[in-house]
Amino acid sequence: MFLKLWILSRAFVVVRFMKFQSKLCSLQADKRAHHNALERKRRDHIKDSFHSLRDSVPALQGEKNSIKQASRAQILDKATEYIQYMRRKNHTHQQDIDDLKKQNALLEQQVRALEKAKGNTQLQTNYSSDSSLYTNRKGSAVSAFDGGSDSSSESEPDEPPNRKKLRVEPS
């Protein structure tokens, strides 16, 4: 009888231990499944971000349907090149804007001087037309009214756009 009781108690302990292990394994499996789902979501987000970046870079836009797609390293390299190109282009455009502002200020100053001279009826007939000319880097004359800039809007990151730099010379 004692032996039966002892065997039953051992069997009960073993059954409880097996249930505990089963629950523990189930919890571990749930944790692993949750971790795997989070990791899959993270990888999908990175993949989608690379696709979005690839689609944003003009040099890579035609590659989403091609057989050989760009690797992640190639996407990052091309994106870096494009960003550097756009920075140079923005800097060039900002220089053009600054030059045009200077040119505009000079023209406004000339208009005020002419209006003042006209108002005093002392308009000088020997006003030189050369005062409305500027010179570009090559030394050729550029009229204040032609804009003086031929910046290109091409999307070639390899070559900086050609542009005329205006230099204001006092008259």
From TrEMBL:
<keyword id="KW-0732">Signal</keyword>
<dbReference type="GO" id="GO:0003677">
    <property type="term" value="F:DNA binding"/>
</dbReference>
<dbReference type="GO" id="GO:0090575">
    <property type="term" value="C:RNA polymerase II transcription regulator complex"/>
</dbReference>
<keyword id="KW-0804">Transcription</keyword>
<feature type="signal peptide">
    <location>
        <begin position="1"/>
        <end position="17"/>
    </location>
</feature>
<feature type="region of interest" description="Disordered">
    <location>
        <begin position="117"/>
        <end position="171"/>
    </location>
</feature>
<dbReference type="InterPro" id="IPR036638">
    <property type="entry name" value="HLH_DNA-bd_sf"/>
</dbReference>
<keyword id="KW-0678">Repressor</keyword>
<keyword id="KW-0805">Transcription regulation</keyword>
<keyword id="KW-0539">Nucleus</keyword>
<dbReference type="GO" id="GO:0046983">
    <property type="term" value="F:protein dimerization activity"/>
</dbReference>
<feature type="compositionally biased region" description="Polar residues">
    <location>
        <begin position="119"/>
        <end position="138"/>
    </location>
</feature>
<keyword id="KW-0238">DNA-binding</keyword>
<keyword id="KW-0597">Phosphoprotein</keyword>
<keyword id="KW-0010">Activator</keyword>
<dbReference type="InterPro" id="IPR011598">
    <property type="entry name" value="bHLH_dom"/>
</dbReference>
<feature type="domain" description="BHLH">
    <location>
        <begin position="30"/>
        <end position="86"/>
    </location>
</feature>
<dbReference type="GO" id="GO:0045944">
    <property type="term" value="P:positive regulation of transcription by RNA polymerase II"/>
</dbReference>
<dbReference type="GO" id="GO:0003700">
    <property type="term" value="F:DNA-binding transcription factor activity"/>
</dbReference>
<dbReference type="Pfam" id="PF00010">
    <property type="entry name" value="HLH"/>
</dbReference>
<protein>
    <recommendedName>
        <fullName>Protein max</fullName>
    </recommendedName>
</protein>
<comment type="similarity">
    <text>Belongs to the MAX family.</text>
</comment>
